[in-house]
Amino acid sequence: MSKTISIDGQAVAFSDGQTIMDAALAAGIYIPHLCHNPEFKPHGSCKLCTVKVNGRNVASCTMPAVEGQEVLSDTGELNAERLVLTQMLFVEGNHLCPGCEKSGNCQLQAVAYYLGMMSPHFNHFYPQREVDASHPDVLLDRNRCIYCELCVRASRDVDGKSVFGLSGRGIGTTLVVNSTSGRLGDTSIAATDKAMQVCPTGALLVKRRGFAVPIGDRIYDHLSIKDHLSIKEVQ
Ligand code: FES
Fold first, then answer.
1. What is the interface pTM, i.e. ipTM, of the complex?
2. How many domains does the structure of the chain reveal?
3. Which of 131, 117, 124 shows the shortest CA–CA distance to 207?
4. What is the pLDDT of residue 230?
5. What CA–CA distance (Å, rounded) separates 205 from 189?
6. Among residues 74, 99, 134, which one ends one of the domains?
7. Nearest atom, ligand 1, residue 21 CA
8. Does residue 63 sit in the same domain as residue 123?
9. Nearest-angstrom CA–CA distance, 34 and 85
10. Are residues 64 and 88 located together in one domain of the fold?
11. How many Å lie between the centroid of ligand 1 and the Cα of residue 18?
12. Is any atom of ligand 1 closer than 6 Å to the C-beta of 34?
Protein backbone atom coordinates (compact mmCIF):
# COMPACT_ATOMS: atom_id res chain seq x y z
CA MET A 1 0.00 0.00 0.00
CA SER A 2 1.43 3.41 -0.89
CA LYS A 3 2.14 5.93 1.80
CA THR A 4 0.15 9.15 1.79
CA ILE A 5 0.11 12.64 3.17
CA SER A 6 -2.77 15.06 3.04
CA ILE A 7 -2.31 18.36 1.19
CA ASP A 8 -5.19 20.78 1.67
CA GLY A 9 -7.40 17.80 2.44
CA GLN A 10 -6.36 15.81 -0.62
CA ALA A 11 -4.68 12.42 -0.13
CA VAL A 12 -1.33 12.46 -1.96
CA ALA A 13 0.85 9.37 -2.42
CA PHE A 14 4.59 9.58 -1.95
CA SER A 15 7.63 7.32 -1.94
CA ASP A 16 10.44 7.23 0.60
CA GLY A 17 12.94 10.02 -0.01
CA GLN A 18 10.43 12.40 -1.54
CA THR A 19 9.83 15.82 -0.06
CA ILE A 20 6.41 17.37 0.37
CA MET A 21 7.15 19.46 -2.75
CA ASP A 22 8.07 16.33 -4.74
CA ALA A 23 4.84 14.64 -3.72
CA ALA A 24 2.78 17.74 -4.49
CA LEU A 25 4.31 18.22 -7.94
CA ALA A 26 3.89 14.53 -8.79
CA ALA A 27 0.22 14.89 -7.92
CA GLY A 28 -0.13 18.08 -9.99
CA ILE A 29 -0.54 20.30 -6.92
CA TYR A 30 1.16 23.67 -7.21
CA ILE A 31 2.97 25.03 -4.17
CA PRO A 32 4.51 28.44 -5.04
CA HIS A 33 8.29 28.27 -5.28
CA LEU A 34 11.20 30.15 -6.83
CA CYS A 35 14.49 28.65 -5.65
CA HIS A 36 13.28 25.11 -6.27
CA ASN A 37 13.69 23.25 -9.52
CA PRO A 38 13.03 19.51 -9.43
CA GLU A 39 16.20 18.86 -11.42
CA PHE A 40 18.36 20.11 -8.55
CA LYS A 41 18.91 19.39 -4.91
CA PRO A 42 16.58 21.60 -2.85
CA HIS A 43 18.06 24.77 -1.52
CA GLY A 44 15.40 26.10 0.83
CA SER A 45 16.26 29.78 0.57
CA CYS A 46 13.29 31.71 -0.87
CA LYS A 47 10.76 30.31 1.65
CA LEU A 48 7.93 30.85 -0.81
CA CYS A 49 7.09 27.18 -0.58
CA THR A 50 6.41 27.37 3.16
CA VAL A 51 3.48 25.21 4.21
CA LYS A 52 1.98 24.30 7.56
CA VAL A 53 2.62 20.73 8.66
CA ASN A 54 0.73 19.66 11.73
CA GLY A 55 0.60 23.33 12.74
CA ARG A 56 4.27 24.22 12.07
CA ASN A 57 5.65 26.30 9.20
CA VAL A 58 8.21 24.39 7.12
CA ALA A 59 9.77 24.72 3.68
CA SER A 60 8.03 22.05 1.58
CA CYS A 61 10.96 21.75 -0.83
CA THR A 62 13.26 20.47 1.91
CA MET A 63 10.85 18.77 4.31
CA PRO A 64 10.64 14.99 3.75
CA ALA A 65 7.15 13.62 3.29
CA VAL A 66 6.19 11.45 6.25
CA GLU A 67 3.14 9.21 6.45
CA GLY A 68 0.17 10.93 8.01
CA GLN A 69 1.35 14.55 7.64
CA GLU A 70 -1.49 17.05 7.41
CA VAL A 71 -0.16 19.74 5.08
CA LEU A 72 -1.86 23.07 4.51
CA SER A 73 -0.64 25.12 1.56
CA ASP A 74 -3.32 27.03 -0.31
CA THR A 75 -4.60 29.05 2.65
CA GLY A 76 -5.27 32.78 2.98
CA GLU A 77 -2.65 33.07 5.73
CA LEU A 78 0.15 31.31 3.83
CA ASN A 79 -0.60 33.07 0.56
CA ALA A 80 -0.56 36.43 2.39
CA GLU A 81 2.90 35.56 3.75
CA ARG A 82 4.04 34.50 0.26
CA LEU A 83 2.77 37.78 -1.13
CA VAL A 84 4.89 39.74 1.37
CA LEU A 85 7.97 37.66 0.50
CA THR A 86 7.35 38.32 -3.19
CA GLN A 87 6.92 42.05 -2.61
CA MET A 88 10.18 42.08 -0.68
CA LEU A 89 11.95 40.36 -3.57
CA PHE A 90 10.64 43.03 -5.91
CA VAL A 91 11.84 45.97 -3.83
CA GLU A 92 15.21 44.44 -2.91
CA GLY A 93 16.19 44.24 -6.57
CA ASN A 94 15.39 46.38 -9.57
CA HIS A 95 12.61 44.45 -11.26
CA LEU A 96 11.21 46.71 -13.94
CA CYS A 97 8.92 44.28 -15.73
CA PRO A 98 7.72 46.47 -18.62
CA GLY A 99 11.30 46.89 -19.90
CA CYS A 100 12.57 43.39 -19.13
CA GLU A 101 13.18 40.89 -21.89
CA LYS A 102 11.97 38.08 -19.63
CA SER A 103 8.56 39.66 -19.02
CA GLY A 104 5.91 37.00 -19.64
CA ASN A 105 8.44 34.20 -19.10
CA CYS A 106 9.58 35.31 -15.64
CA GLN A 107 8.66 33.15 -12.67
CA LEU A 108 8.96 36.01 -10.19
CA GLN A 109 6.45 38.05 -12.20
CA ALA A 110 4.23 34.98 -12.66
CA VAL A 111 4.23 34.21 -8.92
CA ALA A 112 3.30 37.84 -8.27
CA TYR A 113 0.37 37.50 -10.67
CA TYR A 114 -0.65 34.23 -9.04
CA LEU A 115 -0.63 35.81 -5.57
CA GLY A 116 -2.61 38.82 -6.76
CA MET A 117 0.20 41.33 -6.14
CA MET A 118 -1.13 44.75 -7.12
CA SER A 119 1.81 46.82 -5.88
CA PRO A 120 5.24 46.29 -4.29
CA HIS A 121 3.78 47.75 -1.05
CA PHE A 122 7.26 48.49 0.41
CA ASN A 123 9.57 51.31 -0.59
CA HIS A 124 12.01 50.34 -3.32
CA PHE A 125 15.62 49.98 -2.23
CA TYR A 126 16.89 50.82 -5.74
CA PRO A 127 20.21 49.07 -5.05
CA GLN A 128 23.23 49.76 -7.23
CA ARG A 129 23.93 46.50 -9.01
CA GLU A 130 26.29 45.82 -11.88
CA VAL A 131 25.39 44.57 -15.32
CA ASP A 132 28.01 42.32 -16.92
CA ALA A 133 27.80 42.46 -20.71
CA SER A 134 31.39 41.36 -21.25
CA HIS A 135 30.57 37.97 -22.76
CA PRO A 136 29.77 37.82 -26.47
CA ASP A 137 26.73 35.55 -26.04
CA VAL A 138 25.54 35.93 -22.46
CA LEU A 139 24.31 38.85 -20.38
CA LEU A 140 24.23 39.02 -16.59
CA ASP A 141 21.93 41.69 -15.19
CA ARG A 142 22.30 41.53 -11.43
CA ASN A 143 19.40 43.94 -10.99
CA ARG A 144 17.08 41.00 -11.59
CA CYS A 145 18.88 38.40 -9.47
CA ILE A 146 16.89 36.91 -6.58
CA TYR A 147 19.78 34.77 -5.25
CA CYS A 148 18.01 31.48 -5.79
CA GLU A 149 21.39 29.97 -6.68
CA LEU A 150 19.92 27.88 -9.49
CA CYS A 151 22.65 29.11 -11.87
CA VAL A 152 25.24 28.37 -9.18
CA ARG A 153 23.96 24.81 -8.82
CA ALA A 154 23.52 24.25 -12.57
CA SER A 155 26.95 25.60 -13.49
CA ARG A 156 28.65 23.53 -10.79
CA ASP A 157 26.63 20.29 -10.90
CA VAL A 158 25.63 20.01 -14.57
CA ASP A 159 27.99 22.19 -16.61
CA GLY A 160 31.00 21.34 -14.41
CA LYS A 161 32.24 24.93 -14.64
CA SER A 162 31.34 26.61 -11.33
CA VAL A 163 31.02 29.98 -13.03
CA PHE A 164 28.81 31.53 -10.33
CA GLY A 165 28.76 31.94 -6.59
CA LEU A 166 27.20 34.18 -3.97
CA SER A 167 29.28 36.60 -1.95
CA GLY A 168 28.36 38.79 1.02
CA ARG A 169 25.39 38.58 3.35
CA GLY A 170 21.89 39.94 3.64
CA ILE A 171 21.21 43.02 1.59
CA GLY A 172 24.92 43.08 0.63
CA THR A 173 24.70 39.71 -1.14
CA THR A 174 25.89 39.67 -4.72
CA LEU A 175 26.16 37.10 -7.50
CA VAL A 176 29.84 36.82 -8.32
CA VAL A 177 31.57 35.38 -11.37
CA ASN A 178 34.46 32.99 -10.98
CA SER A 179 37.22 34.49 -13.11
CA THR A 180 40.29 36.54 -12.32
CA SER A 181 38.63 39.68 -13.66
CA GLY A 182 35.27 38.78 -12.12
CA ARG A 183 33.69 39.20 -15.53
CA LEU A 184 31.67 36.70 -17.53
CA GLY A 185 33.72 37.34 -20.66
CA ASP A 186 36.68 35.66 -18.97
CA THR A 187 34.82 32.45 -18.09
CA SER A 188 34.01 29.39 -20.19
CA ILE A 189 30.24 29.89 -19.88
CA ALA A 190 28.30 29.20 -23.09
CA ALA A 191 24.81 30.17 -24.17
CA THR A 192 23.91 26.46 -24.24
CA ASP A 193 24.91 25.85 -20.61
CA LYS A 194 22.32 24.56 -18.17
CA ALA A 195 23.07 27.61 -16.03
CA MET A 196 21.57 29.73 -18.80
CA GLN A 197 18.30 27.77 -18.80
CA VAL A 198 17.43 27.79 -15.12
CA CYS A 199 17.28 31.45 -14.14
CA PRO A 200 13.68 32.08 -13.03
CA THR A 201 14.01 35.81 -13.76
CA GLY A 202 15.77 37.86 -16.42
CA ALA A 203 19.14 37.97 -14.62
CA LEU A 204 20.81 35.66 -17.12
CA LEU A 205 19.92 36.11 -20.75
CA VAL A 206 21.26 34.80 -24.01
CA LYS A 207 22.13 37.73 -26.24
CA ARG A 208 20.43 38.39 -29.57
CA ARG A 209 17.31 36.45 -28.55
CA GLY A 210 15.49 39.25 -26.78
CA PHE A 211 11.89 39.62 -27.88
CA ALA A 212 12.20 36.67 -30.31
CA VAL A 213 8.82 35.72 -28.87
CA PRO A 214 6.58 38.79 -28.85
CA ILE A 215 5.02 40.02 -25.63
CA GLY A 216 1.56 38.51 -25.55
CA ASP A 217 2.79 35.12 -26.83
CA ARG A 218 4.91 34.18 -23.84
CA ILE A 219 4.26 31.38 -21.34
CA TYR A 220 2.61 33.35 -18.56
CA ASP A 221 0.72 35.57 -20.98
CA HIS A 222 -1.49 32.51 -21.44
CA LEU A 223 -1.06 30.29 -18.42
CA SER A 224 -1.03 30.80 -14.70
CA ILE A 225 2.25 29.61 -13.18
CA LYS A 226 0.11 27.19 -11.21
CA ASP A 227 -1.00 25.43 -14.38
CA HIS A 228 2.26 25.78 -16.26
CA LEU A 229 4.53 24.41 -13.54
CA SER A 230 2.12 21.64 -12.56
CA ILE A 231 2.03 20.46 -16.18
CA LYS A 232 5.76 20.86 -16.78
CA GLU A 233 7.11 19.48 -13.52
CA VAL A 234 4.82 16.47 -13.43
CA GLN A 235 6.30 15.33 -16.76
FE1 FES B 1 11.37 26.06 -1.08
FE2 FES B 1 12.45 28.29 -2.15
S3 FES B 1 11.16 26.83 -3.07
S4 FES B 1 12.51 27.61 -0.08
1. 0.97
2. 2
3. 131
4. 64
5. 12
6. 74
7. 1
8. no
9. 11
10. no
11. 15
12. yes
